[in-house]
Hints:
Elements: H1 2-32, H2 51-60, H3 68-90, H4 98-124, H5 152-159, H6 163-191, H7 195-221
Amino acid sequence: MTSFTRAPRHKHSRRIAAASVVTAGVLFLAACGGDGDDMSGMDHGSGKSSEPASAPATADAGSGDFNDADVAFAQMMIPHHEQALDMARLADGRASDAEIKDLAGKIEKAQDPEIRTMSGWLKSWNQPTAAESTPGTDHGGMDHGGDGMMSESDMDELKAMKGTEFDKMFAQMMIDHHNGAITMAKDQQKNGKNADAVKMAGAIATGQSTEVEQLRGSLDRL
């Protein structure tokens, strides 16, 4: 009787152990595989799980909707505008003509926000604010043969002027400066891809063409 009772207990124990192993195996496979849907949320050391978080930054960077012409336009127009601001600020305490003073104020009011906007574009496009300089050029590699940029000696001469002499020189220099910006803006309208940059170029071409006419009228009157 003793041997008869021990045998079923042994077989029963082995059955329990086998069932436990099978159950554990099923649970393990379920945890690792499941139906495949849970795998997308796992990192697996590949770093892919971070890609969706960086996608919005790529979209914010213009969604690829810009080209080399857009970048060059912003990089070149920023220092061009900065010099116009320097010239406009010289009018305070030097200009004597009311129209020249008024126009200098308008130039400063219009171009300072545009500089900030263009700097923001370049940052979002992951591009440097200034273009690389090349030998024989200044202001980010711009050739001063056609962009209307003034030399340091031109700026020093303007600083030394006061009254009507300043007004006349300011008007002539700003006409040349604006004409350079207009040429750059029209090139951007033809070659640019980014809608905002092309729109700004159109506004610059229109606005500064109007100011050139005003400056010419002032110059004829002075």
